Structures are given as C-alpha cells and as structure tokens.
Amino acid sequence: MKTFVARLVLATFLLALGLFGSSFPVNAAISSSPTLELDASNPSSLATSGATSWRDLVSGGTVAATLTGNAAYSSAGGGSLEVSGVSSYGGASFPASAVGTVTNPSGDMSLMMWVRFSSWNAEWNLLASHWFTNAGGSEAQNWHFASRISGGNRYLNLYTTNKTNMFGSTALALNTWYQVGFTLTTAGSLQFYINGVADGAVITGATRTANTSSQLWISDARSNCVACSINGNISRFRMWNSKLDSATVLNDFNVERENFGYAPFVTSASFSLASNSPVYRVLNTITATVPLNSRVTFYENTKIIPGCKRVVPTSTTAICRWKPATHGAINIRVSYTTSGSATVNWAPSANFFGNKRTTTR
C-alpha cells in the first residue's frame, strides 16, 4: 500500500510538472538569448481567445503587458497581435519599471520584432516605445521606434532622448512580413535592421536616458492619438540588454524566415533530375536548390550544359533544361557562386546511365 501511495504521489508530481512546469516554453529556435520575449504564436504568451495580456516567455509570464484599445489575437503569421490605428488605437503596455529591468535596459540594447503593415497612417505607424508615461501621452523621453513617412515612402524611424527623427534607408511595403529592429549602444551608435540585414549606415549621437517614469509600449497605448498605432500585425517582439552583432541578427532572421513566407534558408546545394533514366537527346530537367543570391552552372561529364551557365535562380531554385549529349555513363555536377564572393561551391555530384533513344529524330 505504501508503495502504491508513493507511486501515486510521484505520478501526481510529474503530471503537475508536465502541465505547469513547461507551460511557458521559450522559443529556442533563435541562437540569441533575449531578456524579454513575446511570441503571439505561443498561447502561453498570447491567448488565442479572450486575451487581456501579452506575457513574457523568459520570465515564465510574470512580466506581462496589458492589451489596450483594439489590440487582439489574430491567426495571421501563425499567431499575432492585430492592431488598427486608422480611427482608434491599440497595443500592449508594460508598467513603468526600474532602470536595468528587462523592459527598461540601462545600457546597450537591441530590439527585434516581426511586423506586417496592412495600411499606412498619414505620418506615424508606431511600433514600440519607452517614451510615454500614461494613456494621455505625457512624456519621459527614452526611445521611440516607428515607421514614418519621408518623401512619400515609409521608413524605419527612431527618436532618442538626445537625437530626433533618424531614418533607415529601405522603403517598407504593405502586406509583407518584416523582421525590423535596431541595436543601440550606450555611446549612442544606432543601427537599424530589416530582415537580418543592416538598414543604412550606423548613426552616431543617438544617446538616450533610461528613466523610471515611461512605460514600454508595443504599438501605441495612447487613447488620444488616433492614427498613431501600427495598422497591421505584430507576431514576435524581443529585447536584449546588449548589442547584438550583425551575424546573430541575420541568423535569427534566417531561423524564422520560413514562418513568414520567405524561402527556406539554404546553406548548400543539391539537385535532382526529372527522370533518373536520361535518354540521349531527349529533354530532361535538372532542378537545383541553392542558397539565395546565387548563380548556378550545370555540367555533363565536366562540360557546361548549353544554356545552363550562370543560371539566375528563382528564390532558391535553379532549373536546367538538359538534353543528354552522350549515352552510357554520365556524371552530372552543379556549381554555384553567391553574391559578393568569387568562391565556386559544388553540390555533390551524381552518376547516371544514359540510354539510347529508341525512336528516330
């Protein structure tokens, strides 16, 4: 009987651990370690119905933002916070906190978020800020991140305590998922990023003053600022109390890119034939999967296949329309170079047997 009771207690403990101990899984796919992570694709972070808060996964949900205005869960992007600022407002608001906490970094910082714009406001499309103290818009300036109009297009924009109206260089489009963000050092060096790549040159002098009065907002929580919130979706929001290097930013983008409609990240090449039984002078198709921004060349028995030199892929797919020039033993090879590099890379080669044609030309 004692053994049975002990087993029952152990089973109950393990069940509780399974139900509660892992109820706030952190997205372990990215290589970096954010100090704050909101992930709307994870119901432990944002409930799929009746959500009133967006909970941080790193803290196990103890740090949470209150949803404001018309912000609500959407299935877009695999799960996102949908907000419209067209004639209203909406977002998520963390309370003011001490300097040095996860929502209020004291030194170097990085911020990255996956967003999709569905329409543009006339000027502001606020993404995140640590600038306002209340829904009425009182200010205690730290940093203010948005998409803002310039010359008819919308670009990333940042204000800090000591420098205003800094723009990125890439025009943003509607109905496209982007990973957008920035790194900012204590010395005031600002670097915007879009989809893992630096957006413009480093901007200097962008120093800021962390304070205990302003709140961390995702989108805009001001009830008196119509057409200030982003119109669209925010799927993931992360902050670090350090400056991410460019390689880490790119890696994190590549890990998640496929979730948001981008071609899968490919680091090497492979190929296949439409028919593994090629026939002399009969059309066959070689399809190669290669890294982005490659130029691809196809070879039959060390000779370049006519029409298949430096082929420009569609995304990560390159096609060679091949009519075997020989029969018998055939070796197929595929080489590629990537943008900005003269290095020739090779896919593993493959051997086939070319059959004689059974019909006359």
From TrEMBL:
Pfam families associated with the record: Laminin_G_3
- InterPro entries the UniProt entry points to: ConA-like_dom_sf (IPR013320)
Q: What is this protein called?
A: Unannotated protein
Q: Which organism is it from?
A: freshwater metagenome
